[in-house]
Write a structure and sequence with these properties.
This protein is α/β, with parallel strands linked by helices. Helices cover 34% and strands 15% of the residues. Strand 6, helix 6 and strand 7 form a beta-alpha-beta unit. Its EC number is 6.3.4.21.
Length: 372
């Protein structure tokens, strides 16, 4: 089943609120979902038993989780149902929207229909909602911690590449529109952003100036952001590249490893004892800003990356660290919000395992088929 990315027109209509859901044309699903390849075997056995012994039983399945969170994955789950459920138009689906703030145990999605038509998709829907909501919530928390500073989603190296499109969409829902790969932008119609890795400098024998010159010559339309921690001498290299490129230098990125102490501190031992000087730290960034300003480069922006999460960003913000953008990766991809799907009504009457019951949510809206 081949499905194209969301068109620019669809993206703009959704941004304006003129359409409220993405469609099954947005997502790329493995066609083996239909055969049950990705479903737990007990769901497949249950569907077969019901077909033979108790067909046409109308159930209501509801989904919830247990934290304060930013919901994501709803549109994907609906598209999944539309693509693989039997007779999807006969299902009654009510749902919240991607981007909604949700509470513990709040019902986010209900599906009403014959069990054998959709029941085998329960675990897949749980997984979709769990991953997308976890990423969206982590990104939202980071964006809130960063305030008016830009957050760049750099999660390409922290998980399997096949997850990038969905993770990128979830990051967008969480509030991060600047993302590292084109695939991350696939579902919502934009393009990846980025400048240089350490490998580019290495390929020019460690010569940062030559690497930057090659970058400018090859991508003259881009903003030049120099990666300045290659020699573990952030301030000296930032000043060197700023003096060489002048107004052509847009910014510098600091990505000092957590076990390293920058050369500036090794040359200025009186700095030791004030705070932890390893990695990309507030003191280093403050000194970098001071040196750039004193040298006549107040417009050069500072981007930081390496081990940032909501707590570390919050610490930087509380200390008024002169950061313009935060690059964040691995901390955003931890799946720690699990969803549960339960069948709670049978033919319109309460029937569920002990401790679970139908939990009506007036915030849900019914999904109309066919989708756009």
């Amino acid at each position: 089943m081949s499905m194209s990315a969301m068109s620019e027109k669809e993206f703009e209509l959704k941004r304006q609120g003129k359409i409220t859901r993405l469609t099954n044309r947005t997502f790329k699903f493995d066609p083996r979902v239909k055969s049950g390849w990705f479903s737990a075997v007990y769901f497949l056995k249950t569907a077969e038993i019901i077909k033979q012994k108790r067909p046409k039983q109308r159930v209501t399945m509801q989904f919830f989780q247990k934290k304060e969170a930013i919901l994501c994955g709803i549109d994907e789950a609906i598209a999944l149902l539309h693509s693989f459920a039997t007779n999807p138009g006969e299902l009654k689906i009510c749902a919240l929207h991607d981007g909604d703030k949700i509470s513990p145990f709040e019902t986010v999605l209900t599906i009403e229909g014959y069990y054998e038509d959709f029941g085998y998709l329960e675990g897949i829907i749980d997984g979709v909602l769990a991953r997308r909501t976890s990423v969206a919530t982590h990104v939202y928390n980071v964006v809130q911690a960063a305030g008016d500073k830009q957050v760049i989603f750099m999660g390409d190296r922290d998980d399997h590449f096949s997850q990038q499109a969905g993770d990128g969409y979830a990051a967008y829902i969480g509030g991060a529109a600047a993302q590292a790969t084109h695939a991350m932008n696939e579902w919502w119609g934009k393009a990846g952003v980025g400048t240089m890795p350490h490998a580019l400098i290495q390929l020019f024998d460690g010569d940062l100036i030559k690497a930057c010159e090659a970058y400018v010559a090859t991508f003259p339309q881009d903003n030049l952001v120099a990666l300045v921690d290659y020699h573990n001498d952030v301030i000296a290299d930032s000043l060197k590249v700023a003096r060489h490129f002048g107004d052509k230098l847009y910014g510098v990125r600091v990505d000092t490893a957590a076990n390293m102490v920058d050369q500036y501190f090794l040359n200025n031992r009186h700095e030791f004892g004030r705070e932890d000087l390893r990695g990309t730290n507030v003191r280093l960034i403050r000194l970098l800003r001071e040196h750039l300003d004193q040298a006549g480069f107040p417009n050069v922006k500072i981007i930081v990356s390496g081990g940032f999460d909501a707590d570390k960003i919050r610490q930087f913000q509380q200390q008024n660290a002169p950061v313009d953008s935060y690059g964040v990766g691995s901390s955003l991809l931890k799946v720690n919000i699990g969803f549960t799907g339960d069948c709670v009504l049978l033919n319109g009457k309460a029937q569920a395992k002990e401790g679970r019951q139908y939990n009506d949510n007036p915030r849900l809206s019914q999904v109309e088929f066919p989708l756009i």
